[in-house]
Amino acid sequence: MRHVLVDGDTLGLEEVAAVGRGEARVELAPEARERVRAARALVEARLSDGEAHYGINTGFGTLAEVRIGGADLERLQRNLVLSHAAGVGLPLPAAEARALVLLRANVLAKGLSGVREPTLDLLVELLNRGVVPVVPERGSVGASGDLAPLAHLALVLIGEGEAWHAGERLPGGEALRRAGLRPVVLAAKEGLALVNGTQAMTAVGALALLRAERLSRVADLAGALALEGLLGSHLPFGAEVQEARGQAGQVAAAAHLRALLAGSPLNASHQGPGCHKVQDPYSLRCMPQVHGAARDGIAFCRSVLAREANAATDNPLVFPATGAIVSGGNFHGQPVSLALDVLAIAASHLAAISERRVEQLVNPSLSGLPPFLARSPGLDSGYMIAQVTSAALVSENKVLCHPASVDSIPSSAGREDHVSMGMAAALKARQVVENVRTCLAIELLVAAQALELRRPLRSSPPVEAAHAAIRAAVPPLDGDRELHRDVEAVCRLVDEGPLDL
Asked: What is the mean pLDDT of the segment spanning 184-193?
């Protein structure tokens, strides 16, 4: 099993996904321990200086002016976690919950939060011993970060809340006990350090992003199959066309399409004077432009999330080198929220153009193939409703792509008067990406049938390899059957990677 070193500075998004899947153990870097000790020493020094320090010996939010005596500091931190655990809705899936734990541990490992080593060690051991906090996915407005989701995570550290262990949902304290762990009693500043930050939106968003990156390649493959089934031209994908515009995503998408389509006898069969087509529809001809723009939007999102995974998003921040403890606003999720809105919008176009290619395939006036690719049209409906399903998901995406990041609603008695809605952006992006996956699976399924109707001619080696993988999971449609099973089978192929060519 691979190891992921948590040092607060170098965590990669692929490592986040590996830990989320339970495929890696986590270890705290020695230099991170030194930074954590230094920051904690500064916090403890401030406890005895007689001054008010936000979140250390004061209340929170609009209660920041209320001083808390030393005898109540542990209770203050516990109360913070208990009161902020107000999330609702379904729990985050295990992979997202584990990614959340890892990202929070990485923030604390920067040594700017003021927690104690045992608290950070327990966070790491949740991952290594299979304790997955139950974290409701709704209830965050994205400032001061993801308060409610992070509080549900913190509950487990103090032996409260709920967690999964060995497949069983348990009270938090019992899950710790079965894993051989003991809860911590939070000291000054620690409760606040656990609940301030953008890690819930970043966890959900990072896994959606990585999935969208794979889907951007699968979209090229699905488009290549459809193009071949429709006897489309390869000429619009030439390198000189792309270089004349110079958009990076477009150049990359066209290069991928050329590699997927190279050496196709099917394409050669309809070249020359006998070809009746002058131009293909945009859903075929403009694949590099549309898929490429999606790639560029996804790349922008990656750049933001890669930085955020290693960002100090706590408040206040503790700077041992200068002795300063500063209340700032790094917990505000606006950068992540905007990036995740871009992710949703970018990914949605992969589905939108895919659905149009499916329409080209099933419409006999456009494809020259039997209606709905049915073997006995009229008696059989073929892929008629598969296209309708794709259209339904594309239209759902249009609603989901309304940006969350333009919204704000005041909270905490007006102290938090501008918020990011970052978790809403993350949840929307996750659903859009899920819908894109299904739309591409439908296109692959339908295009595979079209290729068979073009036999005995065959396409390029990559397209034929994809066709063979689809046929290993789903037989040809020789008569009507429950299509949802076929769609689900190709969705699994997309998820599991054989079609990532």
From this structure: 94
Tell me what percent of the residues of the chain surpass a pLDDT of 70.
96
Q: b/e map of 71-98 (b: 16 or more CB within 10 Å)?
A: eebeebbbbbbbebbebeeebbbbbbbb
Tokens at residue 81, please?
A: 């976690």
Tokens coding 438: 């299904």
In the chain, list all ranges with CATH 1.20.200.10: 205-307+333-496
Higher per-residue pLDDT: 47 or 163: 163
Structure tokens at 290: 């549309």
Ramachandran class of 5: left when φ > 0, alpha when ψ lies in -120 to 50, beta otherwise: beta
Closest CA to 501 of 209, 285, 297, 219: 219
Fold of 205-307+333-496: Fumarase C; Chain A, domain 2 (1.20.200)
Q: Which of 8, 11, 35, 54 is catalytic?
A: 54
**Token duo for residue 367:** 């494809």
d(CA 364, CA 239): 32
pTM of this prediction?
A: 0.96
Is 54 tagged catalytic?
Answer: yes
What pLDDT does residue 72 have? 81
Kind of pairing, strands 2-6 and 24-28? Answer: parallel
In whole angstroms, give the CA distance from residue 176 to residue 160: 10
Gap between the Cα atoms of 35 and 109, Å rounded? 8
For the record, the structure tokens of 294 come out as 């999606």
Which class for 150: exposed (0-12), middle (13-18), buried (19 or more C-beta within 10 A)? buried
Bridge partners of residue 163, in order along the sequence: 133, 170
Q: Where in the chain is the domain with CATH 1.10.275.10?
A: 2-197
Give the CA distances from residue 147 to residues 2, 255, 309, 398, in Å, rounded to whole numbers and listed in that order: 31, 44, 17, 29
Rounded to whole angstroms, the Cα distance separating 438 from 469 reads 17
Topology, domain 2-197: Fumarase C; Chain B, domain 1 (1.10.275)
C-beta of residue 195 within 8 angstroms of C-beta of residue 77 = no
Kind and range of the H or E run holding 133: strand 131-133
